Structure formats: structure tokens, C-alpha cells
From TrEMBL:
The protein, known as: Bifunctional 3-(3-hydroxy-phenyl)propionate/3-hydroxycinnamic acid hydroxylase
FAD-binding domain ranges (all copies): 5-344
Lineage, top ranks: Bacteria, Pseudomonadati, Pseudomonadota, Alphaproteobacteria, Sphingomonadales
Organism the protein comes from: Sphingorhabdus pulchriflava
UniProtKB keywords: Oxidoreductase
UniProt key word Signal: no
Amino acid sequence: MTDSDCDVLIAGGGPTGVTLAVLLARRGVKVIVAEKEADIYPLPRAAHIDHECMRILQEAGVADEVMGGSRRASRYDFRNAKGEVLLRFGGAEQIGSGGWPVANMIHQPSVEASLRRSLAAFANAKLHSKWELQSFADDGDGVTAQIETPDGERTIRARYLVGADGARSPVREDSGIIFDDLNFEEPWLVVDVLVDDYSRLPSDNLQICNPERPTTCVLMGEGRHRWEFMIKPGETAEQVSDDAFIETLLEPWNVKGAVRMERKAVYTFRARIASQWRKGRVLLAGDAAHQTPPFAGQGMCSGLRDAANLAWKLAAVVKGEADHRLLDTYQPEREPNVRATIDMAIMMGRTVCITNRWSAFLRDLKFKLGRVLGKLPGGPPDYPPISTGAILKDSVGAGSYFPQPVSVDGNRLDEVLGTNHWLITRQDLSSRKLAPFANKLEIWFDEQAVEAVLVRPDRYVFGTGDSNLLQTSWRHVRRTASTRP
């Protein structure tokens, strides 16, 4: 296909779309991002990025900048109406396997600004504001899109179209793709504040499981804090959004004079997954493909994981290094992880959103008993590894997440080995490149009891075993999207 304006047209210039664009541009793919808004939405939305997604932002060239404006809480507590701890997740400030702190509270507009600056450095990528996708047609050889621009309607020809255009995604709707509704729908009031006196605010992230008014209180990026209040039956969005009403909600927190309101918004927290993430040359990513309640802090993270999974596959297909069927592994690999994160968020939400006093009493009793018996988890469960797709299924560790060690002088493994796939043998650990990471990598090799590993560009393990077989199998899966030679 030689008559295209770009290899990949991305509808939506939010964090998922721009991250995908940066990762594609780094791989030599020509990208256009069409964003209907004039500028970045200036107020906070997502509040959390985990260590794996910080690693993705590292590849996008913005991790240090994002980290500089982020904050960390040592604990995530679920407390009842009396303030008693029902469930506590600790260790959020520790370094995770992705090579960054486990949990990082961020200011989304600042993250998006960093990503856009990174994208602007690539000659083969362009983000156009006030470009709104009107329609598109997939003819099997490419996608022709009609876009309304400030200068009138424009036709863009692309090899692939990615809808990263949010929960109301026109790309998804125009493709006739329906949602699988996971039956969670709760209206909440979100209140974001600017902080003048941190000493009067909680330093931990909190879920207040009070049947009178379930409430979330969490840190955000530097200078900000957030409360979320469940809206009771009979209350209207207009009523709860009134400044005087919000003042009464904040009264028990004793923060008057310590904070200034920046944003108030009513959201309906939902859990939904699109039935189809690829339809021919059209793909979905981020909120266009899935929506999760915010209790596990995985909304934006899930979109960034989509971008990391999709980027290397799209690049390989566009550059003729892989068969287009490789893209069919995208949804089977990502959907189980998304469903697990949504299940976790729903579990947390249903723990928090109990408004019946008797049910709340029984919940509290259950958690107290679990604490006494030592049966409560110390943190969220590990999300499932990739179980099917572009992996060597029968090999040890296939589909698991490969860690990023940090050397004593602060270097990270990805910065040394680059963005492509890696073949690492146990003998390689003594090389000049890997010696600074050898101790931690050797632990991984010992735990898996393997001599070689092939790591995919999104840092999931393709497979382990004989190095020659790994190389042969990796070439084969890219050609056929099957691990069967």
C-alpha cells in the first residue's frame, strides 16, 4: 500500500492514544493522531499509575518527568464507619518488578502534556487538535477516514485505524461493536482540590466503608488531593454538585482553609468490555475497549498496557516483519488481564458501596475475623499472565512479566537493552551490558530453572529454553501468529 497518508491513524489524543503514537513512532511507524478537542482537558481525571505502566512511560521517554510530579502513599486502607481498618494494602512506595515504585499518584493533565512533548520530537508523527473523525471505511487494503478540521473536511488514508477515543467511542459505535456489561453501575461525586496545607490531610489512600455515605479519599499529583462520595438514591447531580453541599461533605475531614476546590464532577462508575477489539483494519484501545470502576486505580493503566501490547505488533505488521494475524493475539492477550482488574475493582467497589447497615455490620465482622485468622491479603492479587497468543505456551514462564532490575548507579535494564525483543542466556549475565543487573537477573533464572529467555518488546516472556529454538519460534510466531512450527 503506497498511497497512504500514514501507517496508523489514531482517533483520540488522550494518554492511551498518544502513548501508542509515541511507541509506534519510536519504531519508525508513520502516525497521525486526530484529537477533536483544542487542547488537553485541564482538570484531573485518572489519579494513579502503577510500576508496570511507569515502565511503559519510560519507553515513551516521560517517566522521569512524570515521577517528578507524582506522590506516593505507603498504605491503601479500607476502613469502616468507626475508622477501624478492615483491609490494608501496604508497600505502595516500594520498587515493583517494573523498576519503579508500586503505586504513583499523578496529575493526568501533566502526564498528557509530557507525552505530547515526547511525540512532538518525532518527524514521523503528528498530533492534530480540533480534528474530529466523521466517518471511515475499511476496504481490506486500508482505511479511508473523513475528518472535520478547522480548514474543512479532509480525507486521510491509513493502513490501520485505532479508536482510542474514549468511553463513547465513535470508532467502536460506527464499527457496530457492542459492550459486555459486567453489571456494576454506581453514581459518584468526584471532588478535586488544590492543597495549601498538607499537614491537615490524610497521607494514606482511604476507602471509607460507611453505609451512611461510602467515600474515597486519595492523594493525587503534587499539590492536589481527591475525594469521591457515593450519591444516595433520590439525590440529583445538581444537588450534590452545589458548593454548599460539598462543604458539608468535607466537614468531617476538617480541611476548611487547607484546600481549595479545583473540580467537581458527577460520574457513573461502570464495568464494561467491548466484544471485539479488532475488526479488520480497525482496532480499539483504552476506554473505547473497556471501562472499569476506579477502586483499583487501573483505568488509565489498562489503556497504557493496551498501547504497549499493540505498538510492537502493529509496527511489525506495518513494516512487513510479521503477518497481520499477529494482531489477532491482541484481545486474547489483553482481555483476561482487563477482566481481572475489573473484577478486582468491582470487588473493592462492592465492599465499599454497601449502604445497608446490617450488611455493613456483617461485612465488618467478616473482615475482622479474616484479620484475626491471618486470611486477609496484604495487597491486590497478581493479575493473570498471558495464557494464549504470541507466546511459546509449553515453556516455563511463558506469558509472565519480565522484571526490570535497577543497577546500583540507577540505570534500568530497558535503557541498556533497548526497545526490541531480547534473547538473554545465563552466560550473557557476565557481559559488560548485563553485569550491573546480573545478581537480580540470576535470581529470576534460578526461580524459573532455565538457561535462556526471549522477552517480547512489551516485556512479557515469549518463552524459555534452548536459545536456538527460541529464536526459531519467535520468527515463526511473527510470520504466522501461531507458536506451532
